[in-house]
């Protein structure tokens, strides 16, 4: 699929406000899609539409919720800014536009991870899944080890 097709199809399930921080959306609006990696977007589409087949909550700041840093994080998001102030390197997949933390509807994060693993043959790109957390984190960092799914502990 081409990028425009992927974004158009994703629009059936997510608004860009759900996938980026408020700072980014306030500055770039609907053009904020430009900061999200195509491999990530394609993988998100497949996970949402073809594997989990349930709603997935990422950010909800735009409807008065508390989540604002679960998708793309810019340099002034608190998680990024605080790490930088402490002199720590912040090379996260969230800041590179290829990660999201989601709450899937009607299933636990572990159930979602298990379902993704069971259907890994549908994934268009290798992914990483974060273990032992109550949310579904996936990203498209590729360890170049020929595994479709790598897991890590955050």
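^ Assign residues to that structure.
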């Amino acid at each position: 699929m081409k990028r425009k097709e992927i974004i158009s199809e994703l629009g059936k399930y997510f608004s860009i406000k759900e996938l980026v921080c408020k700072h980014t959306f306030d500055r770039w609006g609907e053009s904020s899609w430009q900061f999200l990696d195509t491999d990530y977007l394609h993988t998100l589409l497949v996970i949402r539409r073809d594997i989990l087949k349930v709603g997935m909550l990422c950010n909800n700041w735009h409807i008065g919720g508390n989540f604002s840093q679960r998708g793309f994080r810019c340099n002034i998001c608190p998680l990024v800014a605080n790490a930088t102030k402490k002199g720590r390197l912040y090379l996260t997949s969230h800041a590179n536009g290829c990660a999201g933390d989601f709450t899937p509807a009607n299933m636990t994060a572990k159930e979602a991870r298990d379902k993704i693993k069971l259907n890994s043959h549908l994934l268009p790109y290798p992914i990483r899944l974060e273990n032992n957390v109550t949310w579904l984190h996936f990203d498209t960092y590729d360890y170049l080890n020929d595994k479709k799914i790598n897991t890590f502990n955050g």
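The chain has six helices and five strands.
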